Give the backbone structure.
Amino acid sequence: MAVEIVTGITEKVFVKSQTFGTFVAMVATDATSPVKGSFKLEPFENFEKTKQARGTASLLDETELDRGGKWSGSFYVRPNTAGTPPDCGELIKAAMGVETGSVYTLSDTICNALQFMHVIDGHWAQFASGAWVEQMVINITGNGIPTVDFSGGFSRFGWVYRDDIKTNEATSQTSIQIDDASRGCVREPAMCEFEGNDNSAAGYIITASDNTASSANFTITPGIATAQVDAGKEILPFVLAQTLGGTILSATECALTIGALEPGFIDAKVTVDTGIGPRDKDATSQYPTAIARVAERSIETDMSFYFTDTAAGLSPFVGYAHDGSTHDIDLRVGADTASKRMKLSIPKGRLDITQPDTGEIITVSGKVIAQQSAAAGDEFAITFD
């Protein structure tokens, strides 16, 4: 196998909902569009140093403890036709709870798990299973390109690097022998293909691996399709084409409504702390065994808009903030055109105490704290229509 320099320029990211910890095959429509270089899978494996009284000042060994990881990424928003989720819809659903067509609402009880595939230049791929969203931040700069930052954790981490098959592998074979000189090229959960054999563009799921010297191997499903794969052929990361719908959203021609008032919108940042986390204290596994609601949900919005000093303008709202008054707040991101807009709704939001920012044109920068309005989970919704 020739030695090649790996570049991170041509990366692809795929995300899919899953039953927690059950890795399933990725397909082209699982593609999403993060900002280049922003997506990270960061596994950890904790070791504890032993302190043995054995007549030496040297560290003799460490004991392996728990495993898991963190992930993060900044994603573009691509509205699609009404009723069709945007390409980052799986992430929004995991943060919010409920996806109904292309409308996202909150749930106190639903915790959606995710899996990821991150392919770098066709040489290297990383995978995560049993992932969750801890925070979603919607960044809207007027006359700019909105992005949504997601972060959270995951249970299991897998990978595929390029390597060689050790022996001829016949049709239907599921246990694949690895060239001993470069053991460690795969770890489940993951997906791979073989030089000249990608299972009719569907790839192979790696379900187990063993890196024992002289007998290193991994297990795939399904077994080898079509013809035999010969010794010396390469084991490769599975590289899918990307199927993306819609057009990247632009934050031009936005509209902000606070009650009946429509101030001039400048920018906003909506931070959703989901309260979702891992069940990771079980002494039955090195890995988190489930995800659950571990804290209360919090939704806060920082926004800026122009100050209008009239009885029907913004000044009363600035005053009401001192009384803890709440308002119905709606923000449309993008032009008021079907299939090209995102709507954010806070039926009951308290505008925090704020002061105008003086300058050539006076603006107001404030924080809105979303509260339950009439029923559990109704404090925030996202609609693509």
Notes: The domain at 255-384 is CATH 2.30.110 (Pnp Oxidase; Chain A). The longest strand covers residues 124-141. Helices lie at 89-96, 315-320.
